[in-house]
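re: ur question from the group chat, yeah i did fold both. here u go
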Amino acid sequence: MQDSLVLKLETQISADNLTETLARYEPWGHRIDFSNGVSTSNLKRRTPFAQNTLQKIKTVEKVIPFAEFRGGQVLDIGCNSGYNSIYLASKYNMYPSGIDVNYRHIEVSNMLSKMANIEADYRIANAETYSKKNSFDVILHFGTLYHLPNPLLSLQTTYGNLKQGGYLALETQVYDHPTDQNICYFMHMQNNDKTNFWALSTHVLKKYLEIVGFLDIQELLRVSPALLAENMSRIILVAKK
């Protein structure tokens, strides 16, 4: 675990009171540390549990010029506990909006942003249809695309929501058939998860981003965890409008 990959929030709340508040939202899936010594890593955890909570945002931070968007707008799709957009708000004074379909995630995101004195807008909304055209400088789309029945619609909507010159940061699962780059994998119920739907092939994903209008598509990271099916990987892409 690298300290630089952990979200750390300042708080004036006592350790006992904060622990009591955070315990209401157990189990936790990501490590968040607080200035009073409390950490979600010391509470009940989900499996798997992410110690390096900021790993994805730190990866795209090497490519996306966030400093140029200081004070701008970021949309966090599938925001979970809001840690990525809260990090950008803390470092670059960006205004975070976040959407998710899980009420717990929205409640926690709003709680953490208030604790950090960050004005934010986290709300229940659908990643395929949430529309706020030409509004965002950066859109984070981490770990959500393969959970959507209509992933291509989500990419099209995302493009419309970006300002000209804005960036998409995308992390998802892909399936790359050894002989046909156009084959995608319907992964419903993979790992007994009814929210899993489509692993697009890398070729199809990049080609559709081009069709929608994205430019300068860069693959930054590719890993193949053991729990994934054969020919599947997780990748991080960055693209520009």
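okk and heres the other one u asked abt
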Amino acid sequence: MQILESLIGTQIGLVCAFLATALLVVVSGIRLSIYGDALGDRTGLGSGLIGLVFLAGVTSLPELVVSLTSVIQATDPAQGADLSVGNMLGSNVFNLLILALMALLFPRRFDPKTLTDPQTDSTLYGLVMLAIFGIAFATADLDVPRVPLLGCSWPVLALPATYGLILRREHRQQKLETKEQLPTETRLAQLPALHFYSVLALLCGLIVGGGILLSILGARMSLPPEQGGFGLEATLIGTLFLAVSTSLPELVISFSSVRLGFLEMSVGNVLGSNMFNLLIIFVADVALHGYSILRQASSKHWTSVGLILLLTLLAGLLLRTRSRTQSVPLAAAMMLIYLAAMAFLM
């Protein structure tokens, strides 16, 4: 442990540890994309729903762990809330950027015409959940009764309830679409169950563990330079460094999925992760019975909420394009908006 502390106790060591962990996540993410497609074949759920639910949940676990750790262990509730909320919102912003990067870097593979209606509807689901979060954030300072036993606010409780309804509708729609399709059997799909699910669990563990370690390394960047950090404020660390660190699994899996021709799974992973990330607020609010995480969070986070709203609207248009001449300008606009927003926050 002391060796690890001494290694990441300098800025150079911190960067080296970050890159090494990122490499582990990249390799594991590529394999998980392949196994995720095989899982869709084995279960009959299809790659789109696997991306929207399974891969989205796996790649969002680092955000969940980091956000909970930030608020529970923080000596200053406001700082912990800023790190947690900033991590979640910043991850959602970066996830939407992944869609733009896929369109720019893989123009031949990124063909929205191949997407089914449930996938393109996911942008609307994301907007609905973002609106619920906005209501919860705007009413956090009001002295209203909280949900008995759980201790969270009623708007926050609406987040998991809405998420459950969305997944139920997606599952029904997926069953209707795959009812008349013949099942496919790949080599991985035919592996013995114990072998297949053991490797799948190992890959998930590496992704989650790597994502958590990346987020820890990202959090150390808030330390003063003399302690090996970069001396950045908590809001920026949460929105930028923690968010990018915990979103690296989504980036790797989405890129590897689209390169392998699994665009449905790739888009589902990104949009599903954004919906799953909003559930972090519910979990944190329940875990912190003493106070509301949104009441402690800075009003600066409204900038991220507005940015997510704008990028989600553009992502919805991007996923409905029918040619590269339409998709490239939209993707470029999303990139420019993201870079401008990060420059503003810094």
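fwiw on the second one: The mean pLDDT is 79. The chain has one domain: 2-345. idk if thats what u expected
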